Amino acid sequence: MTQMRYVDGLRRAIELEMERDQRVIVLGEDVSVGGPFGITAGLLERFGDRRVINTPISEDSIMGLATGAALAGKRPIVEIMFVDFITLAMSQLVNHTAKLRFMSGGQLNVPMVIRVQQGAGGGWGAHHSQSLEAWFHHVPGLKVVAPSNAADALGLLRAAIRDEDPVLFIEHRGLHFRRDEVADPDAIPELGTAKIVRAGKDLTIVTYLKPVWDALAAAAELAARGISAEVIDLRSLSPLDMGTVLRSVERTSRALVVHEAVLQGGLGAEIAARIQEAAFDWLDAPVHRIGAPFAPIAASPVLEQAFVPNAWTIVAGVEQMLGLAPAAGLRAGDARHVT
Amino acid sequence: MADETDALYRDMLQRMLLIRCFEERVIELCHRKQLEGLVHVGIGQEGVAVGIAAALASGDYLYGTHRSHGHFLARGTDPGRLMAELAGKDTGLCRGRGGSMHIVDADRRLMTATGIVGGTIPLALGTALAAGENGDVVAVYFGDGASNTGSLHECLNMAALWKLPVVLVCENNGYAEFTPMSAHTVVSHVSVHGQPYGIPAQIVDGNDTLAVLEAGRAAVARARGGGGPTIVECLTYRLRGHYVGDPAAYRKAGEVAEWRDKDPVRRFTALLQQRGTLAANEVEAIEAAARARVEDAVSFMTESPWPAPRSVADYVYA
After folding, report:
1. How does pLDDT run across B52-92, given as a tens digit for each residue?
2. Was domain A195-337 assigned CATH 3.40.50.920?
3. Which residue spans of chain A are classified as CATH 3.40.50.920?
4. Which chain B positions have a beta carbon within 8 Å of A108's beta carbon?
5. CATH 3.40.50.970: does it fit domain A2-182?
6. What pLDDT shows up at residue B252?
7. What ipTM was estimated for this complex?
8. What is the pTM of this model?
9. Under DSSP, is residue A129 helix (H, G, I), strand (E, B) or coil?
10. CA B121, CA A246: separation in Å to the nearest integer?
């Protein structure tokens, strides 16, 4: 059993795949010196500057450049430093990367990975903290992956690099330095599969990225009150593994979707819609969602804390769903995130 | 040597005529509602398409614009499969998925056209980054309209920084959609944009097919030899509107007539007759041959099946 940090899992995935396949190249700002989070550290020294390419600040063209390299047989991993900056690259990503296979009637392949990190913490403000996965879930032609732990950071990134389709690989910067047990460091899970990370029988909590850990903490707290919550880590946001979710809801009869992204128009809405369409007869209550308020994230630490859902938000949300009185000691206003 | 050149030039004229006939037939089919879609024809710009295509080796790559029928035909794309693609038939190059603005002929390394102005320039740079290892060159088209996109400037920087083997072909036809260059660009020529990045440029009469060929060859050789990017700015004119159906009332009186006098197809035909490459009685025959090829293409298109409606979501993922 190995212990590994999330960032180490990411780095190891890139190293292993670059070693295995000469076509894999890395592009992005500051990648040759490891980037802001050290993930690409050492790659330039090991693989050379033909395979580790430090780019100017030109996100729009970098996205197109990586796509063009993929069209000519490379398997690029392009890094966009903050998901907030992917906005600069949207035309190339949505109009070319995601659509060239389709528009060409299958003549063209775009086997590339776009790595981004997202999420709040530290009061970095509205341009360095957004959660934008819902936008990309909505783009046919892209796959979207979001690991919550080091083992999945490693395994799913390897799977994404080997995938023939363009994959948006979303990391969370709040998870970078968490250490996890990695049972099988050589495992490469199939993209598009969710994982039950805590079994339970009273309700199903569906979530991904950092909120997985908040949900597990909430589940432990709820267990002390006799509520058994099942927690599903989606891992793949497009395609969604609704099979795992629906089978769980059939057992528990209640569902709660949690994400850090703004509640309105978030992935929770899609998942809730699909649950009620397919499992209406199994539900004992409407599907609930937790997400951030409909506002940009403020820089002030007090406002950031009020904005980002946490374990207590989830506990309060579950209590509300089950019609229970809130437990003593809960901060006021924690339940405002809940539908 | 002279025989080789004669054969090449005859072939080039045949391609120019094919493009002209094809595009004129496309306009007619659109007016008769036998073709639908948003279509942009390149009548008047055949000299650029054929001159550049002849400068490339078969292993080189080419990226287009939204107006790329001629770029593709110049490089040997089958006119029937192109016509079928424009019509949205299942036998089209892209099985009806791409249409006029998004054609791809990957076997010929005609990588893609695009509906996004200037959108293929970064794609071309990426392909050059990958393919440069094999000694292949990448040519990419863009217009004077695209020359003001931020992405173009990002790409000029990176192409020069990394000495990428690209040929940046600007089809300067004086208009960005409905707006003349004088109203949208502060510099006199698109080539000026290369100067801050140290990218050499050649400005040529885009309607002089051999001048385009010569400039294209020089740029390709430079790229292949490790000398990096070149801008080849071809001054030309589109004799029709921006899209089929555009009345183009924004053009000055007499402008179209002025450019008709510089028609690249007529000029190249006359040049070849002057050189003795083409006899006077051959002209009619090769024009008829081009028309016949286009008619075959129209028949193929008409007789081809539509894609099955249930295949609407095919080809999205591998």
Report:
1. 999 999 999 999 999 999 999 999 999 999 999 999 999 99
2. yes
3. 195-337
4. 104, 106, 111-112
5. yes
6. 86
7. 0.97
8. 0.96
9. coil
10. 45
